[in-house]
UniProtKB/TrEMBL annotation:
Belongs to the cation transport ATPase (P-type) (TC 3.A.3) family. Type IV subfamily. Its EC number is 7.6.2.1. ATP binds at residues 422-424, 497, 538, 561, 595, 675-677, 765, 771, 794-795. GO terms for molecular function: ATP binding; ATP hydrolysis activity; ATPase-coupled intramembrane lipid transporter activity; magnesium ion binding. This is Phospholipid-transporting ATPase. Keywords: ATP-binding, Cell membrane, Golgi apparatus, Magnesium, Membrane, Metal-binding, Nucleotide-binding, Phosphoprotein, Translocase, Transmembrane, Transmembrane helix.
Length: 1157
């Protein structure tokens, strides 16, 4: 019923959303974020009032600016830690046993044999958790202890971020992060404008323009700030990144409205702006960034959860054994009470059934190994150190090592099936670099002098080359800055435009200055001035930008750059041959993963221009359908264009990204890209990173309604037919608005079926909460292990939702790394983290857990077999301290050696052949069947060890003198053979024999013999172990003992050995074959045989042949497909209150900027 109500609510929400006016992508993404977040909303009555340049009244309780991403605090540690530990059934069980042992005359093994180890285990776990959380606190302190200039007591003082309070006026310098949420007061730029980078918040590569109110933009000096007073009234803290409502009430002045364009959010960075003054409105965990974060979750590995469930089942077996023994004890006692009166059965206090039951529960409690928990904690902690110390994952440039922030998920790294990756800063460096341009039939590389040579020599391409370079240096919104020393520095909201202008300067056409009316360029040493007449802005609908200029000769010209589809349809008919050649070059650029733009010009008649200018002005001032009118006016002038060339920009990837993605795909890991950036940019990166290959069919979902989304999803599912939910060579691309509808409860299942049917999924323009929702739904639907990786604050939610969260600890922002389970400096290190450390740790942890249960069952089930001969009395066969030290000393080292040093193949082999990841990914090494095979193996071994030992001692004559030694001699016989057998078993299942492995296995056997030798001499010097006095003499002088030492473990282990031989020869796995090849030093590639490289499956070939199916009924999608195949992508802010034209009209680079002092 609850789900039904939710579905109805969701449906109503989406139907309401359909009624909204169509918005641009950026606005739609904002709407997604707004609608996703309903938690924590406050009533409008709780408006926040902030006093300017005075102390805030005591009635206002504002939080401090300290942030924390750690799991624990001093007060919360004990309850949270105990909750985490006692989620494990094993710890609950041991606590119960420890309490039962305190009941007098119940425990056959003493009162503290369980309590002391339990306290020790919890202490070790607590120390490990504290050490790991201290690292998180240190990372938080690194952020909290950054410094910022604050205006207090009429002067600027530098304080730490954590000491910034609401109402402070702060001065933020260029390339610095904002310490809190601020209202922009003024800046070094004209009209109080500032450029901010929000990649850390929304993943967008382009800069955003924010502008101060006109009344505060003049506050550019300290003196003016001193006289600034009044209040700001605004909404209470909330998580809506793209919304803000407030009012500035200056003293004795009219109130002014404040909106999102005056807000500078924590997590964003100031760019291309010398400084800004901002008033702090939200601090710490009340900032919008932190409101979008969630508390650090308590994650547990799948192996841990499976073990927890099996412990419950094992406890059921234990209880069955205890009831059986108690019932048998009752039967035996009643049948022997009269006949065997000399035993004194009538005087036994424990004759009560429940007392007997508790006695056996305590006796058999070690079936569940208490040592397992401390062994796991120690091994995981050291495994984490191995990750931290791996030099192959150390980034020397930034001095950043890999860091395991939690060790509880080490084995989870070996089971990852889905990777959800951010784009900006994770796959890319957010650096655009001009690589080459095409003019005529020649491609000019940026690092060659061919272009300059052709211009100087008057080559046939010379005129078009000049036009192209002039266009690149004039048609843009870049702001130049000429420092006293050094070359010109270019500032731009669009990283693409900056790269184009830098590229033109490399070819000798340098952009020098900008004023509201003209720009100046240095064209091969000659200063040229171009008067800017009109700017027709770039939008995602127009996919082009044009400027109309008057050149130095007085001619009016139009320069246009944009996507090939929109440029080609506006070309003059005579340029068809050049256009065909250029298309081939565009496709070549696209195959290299480069971002392309086409450039064209046209000469305008002055009378035609003046007529058009009137039409354009009327369109810009129209009240109805302004955007459509502007587009129609632009079409009147942007026609009969002459194609001059095309440019290719590289959105620089992190080092090794294509190779890493290729290897991960070979390991059968699905990679999804979730980004807040534009669709074209995201798909372009998909091509350049080799996530999408040329020729791969694309399913593009860009629907604006719930019904449209449903129709698209169901149609594509129908097209896939029997291949639905089977992986196909298809890429699915969906934007944030459509994703909102696709994840509605009545469509979610069908959408997820479509997603898992595609090899690649790219979600564009998605909000942080949408990222988390995608991760959560895919995790729940596929029931597989998921990993999320990102570098920005907008990635924190998905990092925390995934089974494993990995943060990129780059140069900008550490919040993702702080919130992650593992942090690395580069995306390429993820390959080694998963394929090497993940696979190794999974193998090691599986063997450790299975072996720990096996060795305990081997010893402690023997007490059940002995109960048959002891009248089901609960009498123990072994000496008490020997029982207690079995897990602590004699069998503690082999599982440690397994957990730390065992490996199936070397690191180089694991990286070279990613398919070796498959066994760990599919969970072949640890599941319910494997677990109970090991349990059964332990029971069989315990029976063989007991009855073989009993057989050799059957006549009780084990010395030449004919004497016998009692039940304890039998117990020590059995104990010795158990220790030797379980050590043999450890050796049998070990793949990699290192010197610590040898020490652990043979050393454990030696330790038992040394213990017997020493412990047998304790009494009476030390009043402990009186029944063991002289035991070493009795054992070591018995030929039967030594013969049994040779035969009993060998006979017991023979079936296991035979099974391993048959499995390793007849049923050899790929891993076995590769390990064998590595040992023999033969070529491992031969194991794989002849693989078809780059071939498509039959399904993929069929889908490729019917590629048009996915684009039918939509002309715009066909255009989009063409653009993508030609590599078009361009980043530019859209829909801001400050238009691109206004930005460039506001600047006069010949006038010095205020210094803010």
């Amino acid at each position: 019923m609850h789900d039904m109500i939710n579905c109805v609510h969701d449906k109503n929400e989406y139907e309401d959303l359909d009624l909204l006016k169509d918005q641009e992508d950026g606005t739609a993404s904002a709407a997604m974020d707004r609608e996703t977040s309903t938690v924590g909303a406050e009533t409008t009555a709780d408006h926040r009032i902030i006093f300017i340049n005075r102390t805030q009244p005591a009635v206002h309780k504002f939080v401090n600016n300290r942030i924390s991403t750690a799991k624990y605090s001093v007060l919360r540690f004990v309850p949270l830690f105990l909750f985490e530990q006692f989620r494990r059934w094993a710890n609950i069980f041991f606590l119960l046993i420890a309490l039962l042992q305190q009941i007098p005359d119940v425990s056959p093994t003493g009162r503290y044999t369980t309590l002391v180890p339990l306290i020790f285990i919890l202490s070790v776990s607590a120390i490990k958790e504290i050490i790991e959380d201290i690292k998180r606190h240190r990372a938080d302190d690194e952020t909290n202890h950054r410094t910022i200039e604050v205006f207090r007591e009429d002067m600027w003082i530098r304080v730490r971020w954590l000491n910034v309070i609401v109402g402070d006026i702060v001065k933020v310098q260029n390339n610095d992060f904002f310490p809190a949420d601020l209202v922009l007061l003024s800046s070094s730029e004209p009209q109080g404008m500032s450029f901010i980078e929000t990649a850390n918040l929304d993943g967008e590569t382009n800069l955003k323009v924010r502008r101060a109110l006109q009344c505060t933009a003049k506050l550019t000096t300290t003196l003016e700030l001193r006289h600034f007073s009044g209040t700001i009234e605004c909404e209470p803290p909330n998580r809506h990144l793209y919304e803000f409502t407030g009012v500035l009430k200056e003293t004795n002045k009219l109130a002014q409205p404040l909106g999102p364009d005056q807000i500078l959010l924590r997590g964003a960075m100031l760019r291309n702006t010398s400084w800004v003054f901002g008033l702090v409105i939200y601090t710490g965990h009340e900032t919008k960034l932190m409101k979008n974060s969630t508390n650090a979750p308590l994650k547990r590995s799948t192996v841990d959860k499976t073990t927890n469930i099996q412990i419950l089942l094992l406890f059921g077996i234990l209880l069955t054994m205890c009831i059986l023994c108690s019932v048998c004890n009752e039967i035996w006692t009643n049948s022997h009470a009269r006949t065997d009166w000399y035993i004194g059965l009538n005087d036994v206090f424990n004759q009560n059934f429940m007392y007997n039951l508790l006695t056996f529960v305590i006796l058999f409690n070690n079936l569940i190994p208490i040592s397992l928990q401390v062994t796991l904690e120690v091994v995981r902690f050291i495994q984490a150190i191995f990750i931290n110390m791996d030099l192959e994952m150390y980034h020397e440039e930034t001095n950043t090592p890999a860091m395991a922030r939690t060790s509880n998920l080490n084995e989870e790294l070996g089971q990852v099936k889905y990777i959800f990756s951010d784009k900006t800063g994770t796959l890319t460096r957010n650096i655009m670099e001009f690589k080459k341009c095409a003019v005529g039939n020649i491609i000019y590389n940026i690092d060659e002098d061919l272009a300059l040579q052709h211009i100087r020599e008057g080559h046939k391409n010379a005129d078009m080359l000049k036009e192209l370079l002039v266009l690149l240096s004039v048609c843009h919104t870049v702001i130049p800055e000429l420092p006293k020393d050094g070359p010109v520095i270019y500032h731009a909201a669009s990283p693409d435009e900056r790269a184009l202008v830098y590229g033109a300067s490399r070819f000798g056409y340098e952009f020098k200055s900008r004023t509201p009316d003209y720009v100046e360029i240095d064209a091969l040493g000659k200063l040229e001035r171009y008067e800017i007449l009109n700017v027709i802005e770039f939008t995602s609908t127009r996919k082009r930008m044009s400027v109309i200029v008057k050149d130095p000769n007085g001619n009016i010209r139009l320069f246009c750059k944009g996507a090939d589809t929109v440029i080609y349809e506006r070309l003059e008919s005579s340029g068809a041959e050049i256009g065909d050649i250029l298309l081939q070059q565009l496709e070549l650029f696209a195959t290299e993963g480069l971002r392309t733009l086409c450039c064209a010009t046209v000469d305008l008649n002055e009378s035609d221009y003046n007529h058009w200018k009137t039409i354009y002005h009327n369109a810009c001032t129209s009240l109805d359908n302004r955007e459509a009118n502007i587009e129609q006016a632009a079409d009147l002038i942007e026609k009969k264009l002459k194609l001059v060339g095309a440019t290719a920009i590289e959105d620089k990837l992190q080092d090794g990204v294509p190779e890493t993605i290729a290897a991960l795909l070979k390991a059968d890991i699905n990679i999804w890209v979730l980004t807040g950036d534009k669709q074209e940019t995201a798909i372009n990166i998909g091509y350049s990173s080799r996530l999408i290959v040329q020729g791969m069919p694309l399913i593009i979902l860009n629907d604006d309604s719930l019904d449209g989304t449903r129709e698209s999803v169901l149609r594509n599912n129908e097209d896939l037919g029997v291949n639905l939910e089977k992986q196909n060579e298809i890429a699915l691309i969906i934007n944030g608005k459509t994703l909102k509808y696709a994840l509605s409860c009545d469509l979610r299942s069908d959408f997820l079926k479509l997603c898992v049917s595609c090899k690649v999924v790219i979600c564009c323009r998605v909000s942080p909460m949408q990222k988390a929702e995608v991760v959560e739904y895919v995790t729940n639907y596929t029931k597989t292990i998921t990993l999320a990786i990102g570098d920005g604050a907008n990635d924190v939610a998905m990092i925390q939702k995934a089974h494993v969260g990995v943060g990129i600890s780059g140069q900008e922002g550490l919040q993702a790394a702080c919130a992650s389970d593992y942090s690395i400096a580069q995306f390429r290190y993820l390959l080694r983290l998963l394929l090497v450390h993940g696979a190794w740790n999974y193998l090691r942890m599986c063997k450790l857990i299975l072996y720990s249960f096996y060795k305990n069952i081997c010893l402690y089930v023997i007490e059940l077999w002995f109960a048959i001969y002891s009248g089901w009395s609960g009498q123990i066969l072994f000496e008490r301290w020997s029982i207690g030290l079995y897990n602590v000393i004699f069998t503690a080292l082999p599982p440690l050696a397994m957990g730390l040093f065992d490996k199936a193949c070397s690191a180089d082999l694991m990286l070279k052949f990613p398919k070796l990841y498959k066994p760990s990914q599919s969970g072949q090494l640890f599941n319910v069947r494997v677990f109970w095979v090991w349990v059964l193996n332990g029971m069989v071994h315990s029976a063989m060890l007991f009855w073989l030992s009993l057989f050799i001692c059957e006549h009780e004559i084990i010395w030449m003198n004919g004497k016998e030694g009692g039940y304890l001699i039998l117990g020590n016989f059995v104990y010795t053979y158990v220790v030797v057998t379980v050590c043999y078993k450890a050796g049998l299942v070990t793949n990699s024999w290192t010197w610590p492995t040898h020490c652990a296995i043979w050393g454990s056997i030696l330790l038992w013999f040394i213990f017997v030798l020493i412990y047998s001499n304790f009494w009476p010097i030390i009043p402990v172990g009186s029944i063991m006095s002289g035991m070493y003499i009795m054992l070591f002088t018995s030929a039967v003992f030594w013969l049994g030492l040779l035969l009993v473990p060998t006979v017991t282990m023979t079936p296991d050995f035979v099974f391993k031989v048959i499995r390793g020869t007849v049923f050899k796995s790929l891993t076995d074959a590769m390990r064998e090849s590595e040992i023999r030093k033969t070529d491992p590639g031969n194991v794989f045989g002849r693989e078809s490289k780059g071939s498509l499956s039959e399904t993929a070939r069929l889908l490729k042949n019917v590629r048009s199916v996915f684009f039918r009924k939509s002309h715009t999608r066909v255009d989009l497909e063409v653009e993508l195949s030609h590599g078009f992508a361009f980043s530019q802010e859209e829909g801001g209150t400050v238009s691109q034209a206004d930005v460039i009209r506001a600047y006069d680079t010949n006038i010095p900027k205020p210094d803010g002092m």
